[in-house]
Amino acid sequence: MGSHASHESGASCSSSSSSSLISALGHTSLEGASYPCDSRRSFFLSGVASSLFILLPNQQARAASSVDEPDATVARFRDIDDFAQDNGWETMPSGLKCRVLRAGEGDARAGIFDPVSKFKPFPFVEVVYSAYLPNGKMFAGTALDRKASFSYQVGIRQELQDEDGAVMSMKVGERRQFAVPAELVMENIGGGKIFGSRVPDVDAILVDVQLLSIRPY
């Protein structure tokens, strides 16, 4: 099973008064509000302060994650042979070709540093993806679906993204491309689909994926 252990953060939260937190939010009117008793007022302000400390780290972490905007189109290609080794492409035994555009360093906050395939049972992942036809046009992707990301459990549907060299080989933070030949699409036991979308009858497709997170099952 992959490395997924909890590590305490080295950062410490400095204490501050409830009134300063409320003031920072602009809710200065709360200071002048009338409460039946001081204890109820303190309870309310304490609850707001607790919510801030819970929500802010998650919002900051999400904003810090590196996500590249998917390309609406890519350079045209003819078939799988256009993805050459001298351009960084590696050929897998299945015929799928892949290359890493941005290395992934894992999720330090969650203690997850292994690739997806190391986790058993297979985990849930969150990705941003786009898939292209030989004419360079996108035919499937989170951008086309107007979604910020796509989440699913790997290995269940046995679709093309579950092939070796695709999402299964990725680490959190990684951006990878993989090219799929028509033969592999036809042989795929998941019905020749990529992230739930059926692949058209073409010589090859190009898929661009960014792995945002891994959530062990």
Verbal overview:
- It is globular, with a radius of gyration of 23 Å.
- The termini are close together.
- β7 and β8 (197-198) form a beta hairpin.
- It has helices spanning 18-25, 38-64, 182-187, and strands at 90-91, 97-102, 124-132, 138-141, 150-153, 175-181, 193-194, 197-198, 204-215.
- The model is unreliable at 1-37 and 39-64 (pLDDT under 50).
- 19% of the residues lie in helices and 22% in strands.
- It has 217 residues and is α+β, with helices and mostly antiparallel strands.
- It has three helices and nine strands, in the order ααββββββαβββ.
- Strands 1, 2, 3, 4, 5, 6 and 9 form a seven-stranded antiparallel sheet that branches.
Short description:
The protein contains 3 helices and 9 strands. By secondary structure, it is of the alpha+beta class.
Count of β-strands: 9
How many helices? The count is: 3
What shape does the CA trace take? globular
Following the backbone from N to C, one meets helices and strands in this order, namely: HHEEEEEEHEEE
What is the radius of gyration? 23 Å
Poorly predicted regions are 1-37, 39-64
Q: What oligomeric state is this?
A: single chain
Strand content: 15-25%
Major pleated sheet: 7 strands, antiparallel
N- and C-termini, Cα separation: 11 Å
Q: Calculate the mean pLDDT score and round it.
A: 80
Which structural class is indicated by helix and strand composition?
A: alpha+beta
The proportion of residues forming helix, as a percent range, comes to: 10-25%
